[in-house]
Amino acid sequence: MSEQRPLALVTGASSGIGYELARLFAADGYDLVITATGANDGLQRTAEAVAATGAAVTIINADLTQPEDVDHLVRAIHALERSLDAAALNAGLGLGGFFLGRTALEDEMRLIQLNTASQVHLTKLLLPDMVARGQGRLLYTASISGTMPTPYEAVYGATKAFLISFVEAVKTEVKDSGVSFTLLLPGEVDTNFWHRAGMDTTTLGLGPKAAPTKVAQEGYEAMKAGKDRVVAGKPDSKLIGNVINKILPDSTTASLHAKGARPCSGLKDADE
Question: Which segments within the chain are labelled E, that is strand?
């Protein structure tokens, strides 16, 4: 790796938004450390795309649902003996379905571990060096789901609400440190999220979606500008995240979300 280039970490880099973020960092002159939870076949594709820009890339295999793997990832970064200039903490899981009697507790606990606990863990380990240097950029992939209750995605939405609250709190604690915190809040994005979450038959899963390239670009530009957050993707997602969820009561936004996330709601809409 070149000492002349800044270094960035991207988690969840094997596909979707994470893949696009890695490409953006590389095109902007960063060397990359990339990792992903689960099947890591896509990481090689990401590494090849990054390397094509002239950037150096290090793949670190880590299952971030496991605390020991979070520690392993950070130790591996430290072993490079380079300062980490930016981190896109993008890894996450979704889970749709009826909370009572349908979704598995094991799946929900894994989701909580990845979407919340690993984010706290990584921030706890990466932030001190950035603060000590007086510079650094942290980009967190949250969701507009974190700005409202999300029936039929009850645990997923709650993890994103936690992440938003956590980032805003830590950012305030270190506001004069020179480290920026940016929350990326997409709406529906065209990735494998919906299939992995078991939401293929929902109105949201079958409906129009933003391209991950667009969402990643909006998030990256917001991070570079030092913005606190950006609601990214489709125009209606921006309206929901920036306006509607701020003025309507939770009971109303929960009912609206339920219509789109209820299993088989998309099939019903198609029949009508």
Answer: 7-11, 31-35, 57-59, 86-89, 136-141, 179-186, 229-232
> 148-161: per-residue pLDDT in tens?
999 999 999 999 99
* One-letter amino acid of 13: A
C-alpha 272/C-alpha 268 separation (Å) is: 6
Q: Are strands 229-232 and 179-186 parallel, antiparallel or unpaired?
A: parallel
Q: Confirm whether 52 is domain-assigned.
A: yes
**8-47 burial string, b = 16+ CB within 10 Å, else e?**
bbbbbbbbbbbbbbbbbbbeeebbbbbbbbeebebbeebb
What predicted TM-score, i.e. pTM, was given to this entire model? 0.95
As beta bridge partners, residue 31 has 7
Residue 2 belongs to some domain of the structure: no
Give per-residue pLDDT as tens, 21-60. Answer: 999 999 999 999 999 987 667 899 999 999 999 999 999 9
pLDDT in tens, 170-210: 999 999 999 999 999 999 999 999 999 999 999 999 999 99
Structural domain contains residue 168: yes
The answer as to whether 236 is a domain residue is yes
Query: CA-based angle 192:199:231, to the nearest 5?
Result: 65
Contact 245, 148 (CB under 8 A): yes
Domain housing 167: 7-271
Number of folded domains that form the chain: 1
Residue 87 sits in a domain whose CATH number is: 3.40.50.720
Strands 31-35 and 7-11: parallel
Q: How many Å apart are CA 19 and CA 42, to the nearest integer?
A: 9
